Amino acid sequence: MKVPIYIRSNVEVGSVQAWSPDLPGLSAGAATVEEALELIRRRLAGYFDSSRSASLPPGTRRVEVEPRVGAE
Q1: Domain range holding 11?
Q2: What is the pLDDT of residues 47-64, one digit of tens each?
Q3: For residue 51, what is the DSSP state?
Q4: Parallel/antiparallel/unpaired status of strands 6-10 and 27-30
């Protein structure tokens, strides 16, 4: 799975920001692009680990459905 990551350099303060608009709250700041990408990779792993381990009530299951076109 690939996740789009955006990187922006802030020359005025000498830092780099990295974030993913597809995953709210996933961001990292560092001094270099390489450091920012390493941090975002670590946080990305933690992002998915925490979402998998989120507690759901017993008996909860995931179901995927398609919308009915033209249904009222």
Answers
A1: 6-52
A2: 776 555 556 666 777 777
A3: H
A4: unpaired
